[in-house]
Amino acid sequence: MHQIDTKLIKLCKKGNEVAQMQVYDCYAQAMFTIACRYLNNDEDAKDAMQEGFLKAFRNIEQYHPKATFGAWLKRIIINQCLDVLKKNQLQFDAIEVSELRITNEDDWQFDSSISKQEILNAIKQLNEKHKIVVKLYLLEGYDHEEISEILEIPIKTSRTHLRRGKLKLQELLKHKYNEARY
């Protein structure tokens, strides 16, 4: 993504529509791609992306350059997508995790014979709760504290959804690995 000029952001903060269109043009494709990761059809993704941009411009005073503008906008777009999913009745319940032991979460090694597209296709097959946590963690790079804030769930629940999603991914991709070996 492009690094937005601070002058352009200052103009956006003053309500300059030309500057807002320049920012939109700069980020629209990347934000649409992110929205498509969470929503099942292009129209929903486009609507969420556009609503996210409107929220960003309405709340641009809250943007402070400690993070890149793109990272700030991305979080708004993801939150907008999650709002759409919540409206569609996806609820994240706290999971009882007392008996579950979390193993090393950084162990996301996939066999080199498995393509990125195969991994993305396997992620699409996960149940909705696991899919969202895996996407936020693996694709967006959020940690469990951030995921718990975004989804309004306990950190343990985020860890549990990630672990279960990872196990299901390994199961889904195991046959790909075995096919490649023979």
UniProtKB/TrEMBL annotation:
Residues 117-169 form the RNA polymerase sigma factor 70 region 4 type domain. InterPro entries: RNA_pol_sigma-70-like, RNA_pol_sigma-70_dom, RNA_pol_sigma70_r2, RNA_pol_sigma70_r4_t2, RNA_pol_sigma_r2, RNA_pol_sigma_r3/r4-like, WH-like_DNA-bd_sf. One of its GO terms (molecular function) is sigma factor activity. The keyword Glycoprotein does not apply. One of its GO terms (biological process) is DNA-templated transcription initiation. Gene3D superfamilies: 1.10.1740.10, Winged helix-like DNA-binding domain superfamily/Winged helix DNA-binding domain. Keywords: Sigma factor, Transcription, Transcription regulation. Residues 24-89 form the RNA polymerase sigma-70 region domain. Belongs to the sigma-70 factor family. ECF subfamily. This is Sigma-70 family RNA polymerase sigma factor. It comes from Winogradskyella endarachnes.
